[in-house]
């Protein structure tokens, strides 16, 4: 059994990993694809060290953890680590993989100075760290739209009060879709400038927008512009992996929102239908847990209105 940093896999090992079922599982969600990791590294100004690991034996790959360290904690840029494992593997083989993986993680305490680990629900990790000091759990709520449903079924699950607002958007607005076939740097710069003007400041680097343009160019996402009277009033970036896509960036004209014009509703629904047309299986609306900040809470309440199903996600934190 080998435990290696993903970045240190040799050419043959990397090729075998990319052919594995484990790789497909990891990359079903865009967030763990290389270009999105590059985006996070840029967003955080390269303050996190990549310590992502994979456990394998010859051509069989068993466990993957995309994780990073800021010198204090092991996490996915501050969020819990997702542990991907081939649970149908022989019990003894998987047990050995976990044993050696835990030993490698413990070495980070000595060699990298980390003292905290954050991870998503995994029975092996929970058992390992349950009795350690500082062990605690957190529950968050996430909204996922099942794209195997018909458009009519998806629409049925939209909050009743939204339907007149969606119809207003369909009547009053026009929509433009940009994907790998027609996205340009100029279009992404329009999005970036719109984000800056709406926010009143630059919130992240120009290079991070270039990485998101590259993601769309490589058929890993798409952009939808919503226009009112020919003017850009809302823009959404959806990012996608092999199976799942998620609601990545949304910008709405604040003056129109203050006037209670529902410029975002029909635009988001178009994004959801577009994901279905493109063959995605799941549209991840995101973490819609209630927030303390009123503005942030209004946003998640709005997001919850596009589905009637919530998934409770348990995550953990422990001291090493």
CATH topology of the largest domain: Aminopeptidase
Write out the CATH superfamily name of the largest domain: Gcn5-related N-acetyltransferase (GNAT)
What form results from the Cα inertia axes? globular
Which structural class is indicated by helix and strand composition? alpha+beta
Oligomeric description of these chains: single chain
Question: Helix fraction?
Answer: 25-40%
Distance between the termini: 23 Å
- Give the strand tally: 15
- Number of domains in the coordinates? 2
Order of helices and strands: EHHHEEEEEEHEHEHHEHHEEEHHEHE
Major β-sheet strand ordering: 2-5-6-8-15-9-14-13-12-11-10
Mean pLDDT: 95
Strand content: 25-35%
Radius of gyration: 21 Å
CATH class membership of the largest domain = Alpha Beta
CATH architecture descriptor of the largest domain: 3-Layer(aba) Sandwich
Outline the biggest β-sheet. Answer: 11 strands, mixed
Number of separate helices: 12
Which ranges are low-confidence, i.e. pLDDT below 50, for 5 or more consecutive residues? Answer: none
């Amino acid at each position: 059994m080998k435990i290696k940093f993903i970045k240190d896999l040799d050419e043959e090992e990397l090729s075998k990993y990319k052919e594995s079922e484990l790789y497909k599982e990891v990359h079903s969600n865009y967030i763990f694809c290389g270009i999105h990791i590059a985006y996070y590294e840029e967003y955080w100004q390269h303050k996190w060290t990549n310590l992502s690991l994979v456990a394998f034996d010859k051509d069989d790959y068993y466990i993957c953890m995309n994780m990073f360290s800021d010198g204090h904690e092991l996490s996915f840029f501050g969020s819990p680590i997702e542990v991907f494992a081939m649970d149908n593997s022989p019990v003894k083989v998987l047990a050995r993989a976990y044993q050696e993986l835990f030993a490698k993680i413990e070495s980070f305490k000595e060699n990298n100075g980390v003292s905290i680990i954050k991870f998503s629900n995994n029975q092996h990790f929970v058992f390992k760290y349950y009795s350690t000091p500082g062990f605690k759990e957190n529950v968050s709520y996430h909204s996922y739209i099942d794209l195997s449903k018909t458009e009519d079924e998806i629409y049925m699950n939209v909050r009743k009060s939204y339907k007149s607002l969606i119809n207003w958007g369909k009547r009053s607005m026009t929509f433009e879709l940009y994907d790998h076939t027609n996205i340009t740097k100029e279009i992404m710069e329009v999005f970036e400038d719109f984000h800056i003007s709406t926010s009143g400041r630059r919130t992240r680097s120009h290079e991070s927008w270039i990485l998101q343009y590259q993601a769309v160019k490589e058929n890993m996402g798409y952009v939808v512009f919503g226009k009112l009277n020919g003017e850009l009033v809302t823009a959404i970036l959806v990012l996608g992996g092999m199976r799942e896509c998620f609601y990545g960036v949304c910008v709405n004209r604040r003056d129109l929102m203050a006037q209670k014009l529902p410029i975002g509703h029909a635009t988001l629904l178009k994004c959801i239908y577009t994901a279905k047309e493109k063959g995605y299986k799941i549209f991840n609306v995101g973490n819609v847990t209630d927030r303390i900040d009123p503005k942030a809470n209004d946003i998640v309440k709005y997001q919850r209105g596009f589905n009637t199903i919530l998934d409770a996600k348990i995550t953990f934190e422990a001291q090493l």
